[in-house]
Amino acid sequence: MELKQFLIMIRKKIVFIILISVLVSITVALGSVFLISPVYEASSTLYIISQKTASEGDVTYNDLLTNQQLVKDYRELIKSKLIVKTALDELKIMDLTPNQLSNRITVSSKNDTRVLEIKVEDTYPVRSAELSNKICEVFISEAKSLAKIDNVNIVDTAEIPETPVKPQPVLYTAIAFIISLMLTLGVFYLLEVINETIKTSEDIETYLDLNVLGTIPSFNIR
User: Which residues share a beta bridge with 41?
Assistant: First the structure.
């Protein structure tokens, strides 16, 4: 199919293409609002510093490498079963398993520094803040007993989030509209390609390899 024919096809079916895309978008928007439970996210921050840096004040290249490795280790420790299970037990949360909570935790280094941000997602805003703070507390306590180190401090405690981070109806609706629009165009294009009905004189030349001697115009006679 040539580009000109494709554009003509779109012009003829533009109403159906837009209507289908709009209906899909509305369905996704309503579903994200009424069917998906809101998810809240609370975050707290920790600051990590090596014992040598804290005592002597001189930072060497090896100290920086050591601190970077500690940050990577602490990322894994924070999400470990020991930490999350202890946090759940102390908060007396029974409807979450350690694996479920671990999947809801995001640990990241802020701007490649020794400041770790611990984000926790939960369907309850208060509980998300409680979990984030408790995980920090448990991690500091366990780090002292496991590694015999005392180089982690809480910088910011988590606050109760006011608005959910999920779902995002506007984003979902926009994505649904774009995807449905592209799929609808693809379906109509495919149907037009596999349709072998001869409609124009160009179709005769293209599909039958015959020359058109003339055409008879249609008249609307009443």
Answer: 121
pLDDT mean by block of 10 residues, the chain; 222 residues: 72 89 95 92 86 49 59 84 94 94 91 85 96 94 73 90 93 95 90 70 64 67 60
For the CA atoms of 40, 41, 42, 48, the dihedral, rounded to the nearest 10 degrees, stands at 170
Kindly state the tokens that stand for 46.
């920790």
Three-state DSSP at 149 gives coil
d(CA 215, CA 201): 8
CA proximity to 139, closest of 68, 74, 94, 66: 74
Predicted TM-score (pTM) of this structure? 0.71
Do the Cβ atoms of 176 and 32 come closer than 8 Å? no
Looking at residue 219, its pLDDT comes to: 61
Class of domain 40-156 as given by CATH:
alpha beta
CB contact set of 155 (below 8 Å; sequence gap of 6+):
45, 46, 47, 115
Please state the domain extents for the chain: 3-34+169-208, 40-156
